[in-house]
């Protein structure tokens, strides 16, 4: 998703950019997990996405929760990072 060359590997610059994004999204995850369960509920997910500087409508939020959520509907840290990185690629201009 962050790959700009065609080698199939991340170069140092690409890795650093990805690492910074992961660290930022990890921080957002823990700041918005107000229930301190280690997962995000639907409302916490909305707050996390908004904290990352993105907007999302209810339909898209529900679809993302279905796709990336556990059977309980909660989003783990790993799923949130995957979700937000993909969302970032979709909304990049």
Structural write-up:
With 93 residues, the protein is mainly alpha-helical. 61% of the residues lie in helices and 4% in strands. The chain has helices at 12-32, 42-51, 58-68, 77-91, and strands at 39-40, 75-76. Helix 1 crosses helix 2 and helix 1 packs across helix 4 (77-91). It is globular. The two termini are 14 Å apart. The mean pLDDT is 89.
Largest sheet: 2 strands, antiparallel
Q: Number of helical runs? A: 4
Poorly predicted ranges: none
Give the ordered list of helices and strands: HEHHEH
Which terms would index this structure?
4 helices; 93 residues; single chain; two-stranded antiparallel sheet; mainly alpha; globular
Question: How do the helices and strands line up, and which of them pair or pack?
Answer:
Blueprint: H1 12-32, E1 39-40, H2 42-51, H3 58-68, E2 75-76, H4 77-91
Antiparallel strand pairs: 1-2
Helix pairs in contact: 1-2, 1-4
Put the structure in a nutshell:
It is built from four helices and two strands. With 93 residues, the protein is mainly alpha-helical.
């Amino acid at each position: 998703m962050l790959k700009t060359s065609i080698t199939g590997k991340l170069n140092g610059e690409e890795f650093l950019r990805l690492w910074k994004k992961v660290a930022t999204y990890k921080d957002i995850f823990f700041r918005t997990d107000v229930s301190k369960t280690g997962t995000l509920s639907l409302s916490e997910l909305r707050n996390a996405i908004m904290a990352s500087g993105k907007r999302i409508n209810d339909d898209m939020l529900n679809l993302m929760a279905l796709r990336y959520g556990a059977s309980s509907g909660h989003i783990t840290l790993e799923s949130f990072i995957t979700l937000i990185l993909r969302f970032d690629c979709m909304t990049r201009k």
